[in-house]
Design a protein that fits this description.
Length: 519
């Protein structure tokens, strides 16, 4: 592929040329034909959809272990039809639909209200944000660690594809969109993960050099952040080790490989944190060597969120190589469903291709570029460092107090007695059962009201919907207590015979890692 670069004179553009430009200065303008731009946009959407669909059966089944080669997965029309309707895709489409309705500068509130009221199911940071929004806590507070204990989780990262796809060569335009959307459900390193993913998509439009894309996109992330330090180290390990499994093992040994806050992951192998999973995107892209299958296969076999990571990796590569260069074996089963609207949306793959192309043209012109007949002239953007932010400052898990004895947990009617603990905060996981049911099909109007007393004083009244759609991800939480001994007492204000509040576990947090203290 030949791309023209305009910087006083017109020159041929290739990965070698751009690698030299790392030292000589990045080109100020990049020209693409509309056909090339559209092909790359389609490649980004198709890549991420194939990636998440093919690897969906592996999701969350391999935590802290490599998925061995003898574990194989099928591919074909049945797989696409079954798995393409998932949050990796319909969340992107939701935000894209808001942009289509309100424009590129649509405010965070519009995106937040749209995702909160859609019928689809959400989990972790997305669901915690939905609960916050439905209860009047709007972004960025909805994604702040004080209100969202899943703020470290991967959610914004897996939903950043659309922002990069509509921002070819304009990394700062991509991060501006991720800033708006990502703070709905995340903050800190997970926000940086979203910016990094969107940035890699943006760079993939103008370079076919994987190393350049990995490093240049990282420049938007503050160097003192844990996310930047971690990704920089992963890239170094990739260059050091010929075998991707050795780099995977280095990640597992690192100080940042453990979940520290998500209650489902603390003290467990389960890890939805953005940093570890972003490392697996990097590993897939680096060792995949621009081979479509190899890229998503390696990213998937790293485990953890093993459908989301290859989705991002395959989407970035799909943008780089274009729709027309995705192997027919992978593309053909998807093509049968390109006119099918994804559930909970009014958007099919073909409409997504068209809308992102439309939004990319608008974004190019907004950022000083031009649309010239059958070509576009892109004002290439030098990465600008994002503001520094830290989630969960000096907050670490120290103990797990467990009520869970079976799938239902333990009833607050019996186990609602005071709990004493020492630390600076807590989070209690659990659910509201109604008529013995708790699942995604539960739609009832009942909302339990729970008085939360800390040290004898009413801290908050927690509203707990029984409906799965609007549920709280935690029964209650408070991460800003003074360090010391505390007593927690829960009182159910409006009990009914049909409902019960089941407690699962209580994670206790403090301001230091006790493991390191004892060494």
């Amino acid at each position: 592929m030949k791309i023209q670069v305009f910087n006083k004179c017109v020159i041929a553009f290739s990965s070698i040329t751009l690698a030299l430009n790392l030292f000589a200065g990045i080109p100020k303008e990049v020209e693409l034909s509309k056909a090339e731009l559209q092909d790359k946009i389609k490649g980004g959407w198709a890549g991420q959809t194939i990636g998440v669909t093919y690897t969906k059966p592996s999701e969350a089944k391999f935590n802290g272990t490599i998925i061995q080669p003898y574990v194989q997965f099928e591919w074909g029309e049945d797989i696409v039809n079954r798995f393409m309707h998932n949050d990796d895709i319909y969340m992107d489409m939701t935000f894209m639909e808001v942009i289509e309705r309100e424009g590129i500068d649509a405010p965070a509130e519009s995106h937040a209200l749209e995702m909160a009221h859609r019928d689809y199911n959400l989990w972790h940071a997305n669901q915690a944000a939905r609960y916050n929004i439905l209860n009047g806590i709007m972004p960025p507070a909805s994604g702040n660690w004080r209100n969202n204990i899943h703020a470290d989780c991967i959610d914004a990262q897996i939903e950043a594809d659309f922002a990069g796809i509509m921002s070819p060569g304009m990394i700062n335009a991509a991060t501006e969109i991720t800033d708006t959307v990502s703070h709905i459900m995340n903050c800190g390193d997970s926000y940086y993960g979203a910016a990094y993913v969107a940035g890699m998509y943006s760079q993939a439009f103008v370079s076919d050099d994987i190393d350049f894309v990995l490093n240049e996109a990282l420049k938007v992330v503050p160097q003192k952040s844990q996310f930047h330090k971690s990704m920089k180290q992963v890239i170094k390990w990739c260059k050091l080790h010929p075998d991707w499994r050795d780099t995977w093992f280095e990640v597992q040994k690192s100080d940042w490989s453990q979940t520290m806050h998500c209650p489902q992951g603390v003290f467990e192998a389960f890890n939805l944190d953005a940093i570890n999973n972003a490392a697996y995107i990097v590993i897939g892209l680096y060792y995949g060597e621009k081979d479509f299958f190899k890229t998503m296969e390696i990213s998937m076999r790293c485990g953890l969120d093993s459908d989301c990571n290859p989705s991002n990796a395959a989407g970035i590569l799909g943008t780089m190589i274009g729709y027309s260069n995705i192997p027919e074996y992978w593309l053909k089963p998807l093509q049968k469903f390109e006119d099918v609207d994804l559930r909970y949306t009014t958007t099919s793959m073909n409409r997504a291709y068209a809308l992102s192309f439309k939004h990319a043209l608008q974004n190019i012109e907004k950022n000083g570029g031009e649309v010239r007949g059958d070509h576009v002239l892109i004002k290439y953007q030098k990465p600008e460092v994002l503001p520094y932010e830290v989630a969960f400052p000096d907050i670490y898990p120290v103990k797990r107090y467990e009520w869970k004895k079976d799938k239902k947990g333990k009833s607050i009617r019996t186990y609602g007695k005071p709990v004493k603990f020492t630390g600076t905060g807590f989070a209690i996981s659990g659910v509201v059962w109604y008529n013995g049911i708790w699942n995604s099909k539960l739609e009832v109007d009942y909302v339990a009201e729970l008085e939360v007393y800390i040290d004898g004083k009413l801290d908050t009244i927690r509203k707990l919907p029984a409906a799965f759609h609007s549920r709280a991800t935690e029964i209650c939480l408070n991460l800003e207590l003074p360090k010391g001994e505390h007593e927690l007492h829960l009182k159910w204000r409006n009990p009914v015979d049909e409902a019960d509040i089941h407690l699962w576990e209580m994670i206790i947090y403090s301001d230091e890692l006790l493991y390191y203290k004892h060494q």
